[in-house]
Amino acid sequence: MKSTVLYPMAACALFVSCSDSPVSDNTPVAKPTPAVQKAPSTPVQVKKPETTKPATKPGSVTSIDVGRVFTMKQSDQAHVIDVRPPLYYRLGHIDGADSMPLIKFDKVIASKRPQLDAAVKAGKVIVLYCQNSNCPDAHKTAVKLAKLGYSTSVYRGGWEEWKQAGLE
């Protein structure tokens, strides 16, 4: 019973308190006047804008297949990175691949940048792989590296396809 009376009263009070109320007196409202500024008595020194380091140009992310990864590895044109968790890397990985787990990316990227920079300087393609085509970690890592300016290729078949091809 009380709620059927209190709720409508509360709603009415809310509408009345939030509505525009008419001005009760006829006092004219003063118009704002622009502030007058005096010229400075001493010369103002204009600071030159600080030169900042230009923003890093994002890298690109492409896909690569097993045959191309194999060929590039054989001719030392690829820097291969395993982005799986460390346990999976220890259980087996593409020969010569570095471990850079996505789950530790933020912790290890500073220590990995010299290797990545050296690979880029040597003209190598940075190839990232995960467990298989259902694993998104290689692509997620590639996007993070692209934001840092590195172009990468994602080997979607991953460790499983590499083993099935007899390349382990």
UniProtKB/TrEMBL annotation:
SUPFAM superfamilies linked to this entry: Rhodanese/Cell cycle control phosphatase
Molecular-function annotations in GO: thiosulfate-cyanide sulfurtransferase activity
Rhodanese domain residues: 74-167
Region (Disordered): 26-59
Alphabetical list of Gene3D superfamilies matching this protein: Rhodanese-like domain (3.40.250.10)
SMART domains in alphabetical order: RHOD
Cleaved signal peptide residues: none
Residues in coiled coil: none
PANTHER family: THIOSULFATE SULFURTRANSFERASE RDL2, MITOCHONDRIAL-RELATED (PTHR44086), THIOSULFATE SULFURTRANSFERASE_RHODANESE-LIKE DOMAIN-CONTAINING PROTEIN 3 (PTHR44086:SF10)
Identification of the protein by name: Rhodanese domain-containing protein
Organism: Oceaniferula spumae
